[in-house]
Amino acid sequence: MKLTTQQIDQLFTFTRQHYLEWYDLQSELVDLIANAIETQWQENPNRSFDEALQLEFKKFGVFGFMDVVESRQAVLGEKYNRIVWSHFKGFFTIPKIILTGFLILALFYFLKEYYTKEILTVTMLFLISSMLPFLFFENRKMKKRKQETGKSWLFEKIISNYGTFPWLMILPFHFFNIIRIDRTAYPSDLALFCMSLFIVSMSLAIFIVLKIIPSKAEAYLKQTYPEYKLENV
Amino acid sequence: MKNSQLYKGSLNTIIMKLLEENGKMYGYEITQKVKLITQGELNITEGALYPALHKLEAEGLLDVEIEKVDNRMRKYYKLTESGQKETVNRLSELEDFIRNMQSLVNPSPKLEF
């Protein structure tokens, strides 16, 4: 006996009720549970759909679908970081390194001329806060898409939330806390160069997660999910 | 999973071996195949299977394909080219492990005079 389309829909609803909001994982687990229920029916044809479903769900343990979600999130988070890293490396190889080098040197000479700790603090704060409005709009865009299609994809969420980057942006503050720059002294050329390198690298990372990756989101989603193409034709 | 600690380290190799033999397989099929081969002795739980599959996919050892079967989507996993090479390595590692375990658990009697 096979599951009806209505029962498949019921399974999708069931996964959503159990905090599985990502369509990619929903469809995979719905197929798994559907197969398991059909096997149960071969042995016990009189067992009701609900009873068979509860028996299958119990097999996932006390945390339900959480283990599967967490493992998928970790894997896709790593994938996202690899994508960011590959773009980042691109800025330090020919031909883009010419531009990167120019930016670092320009900032270095600017800081050499006009360095004050206020300039440094304002620049850092500006870089960090620049993510917030984008984060807000990206999330709104994703919610809208979900309303239109009824589906949300885990990797889409990672792209829209910039992976773990908003959290990484807090790191510089710890960094400054640890090294405790002598605020009265004027930094050496080496310190200024390191600051320039650091600020340019941070700006590039922000540019990659805010602009480059979201602009290629569709391609990354298609590459991650073969079903994405089928669903969005 | 039965005796999970002992089997845990070999789960990825078990999956890769099955895919090597069967071409492409979907999640449920893998659990059932393992159950069948081990005559119900080894039961891979969903909570263990999917993290393993997702990790292998992320490592580039598995590729996925989607097919519409009956009234639902089915996700098939298959070995990539590097996955096929890695399966050979991991199987030989597992065989070494089994051999070493056998000699430790069941040492051949020494002839001492």
Question: Describe it for me?
Answer:
The complex is a heterodimer of chains A (233) and B (113). By secondary structure, chain A is mainly alpha-helical. Chain A folds into two domains: 5-62; 67-231, no CATH class. Chain A contains 13 helices and no strands. The longest helix of chain A has 27 residues, at 189-215. The radius of gyration of chain A is 25 Å and the shape is elongated. The model of chain A has no long low-confidence stretch (mean pLDDT 82). Chain B is elongated, with a radius of gyration of 17 Å. In chain B, helix 2 crosses helix 5 (81-105). Chain B has a three-stranded antiparallel beta sheet. Chain B is an alpha+beta fold and 113 residues long. Chain B has five helices and three strands; from the N terminus they run H-H-E-H-H-E-E-H. Chain B has a single domain, classed as Orthogonal Bundle (Arc Repressor Mutant, subunit A), CATH 1.10.10. Chain A binds chain B through residues 2-5, 8, 27-32, 34-36, 39, 59-61, 63, 67-68, 71-72, 75-76, 78-79, 226-227, 230, and chain B through 26-29, 32, 45-47, 50-51, 54-55, 57-58, 64-66, 68-75.
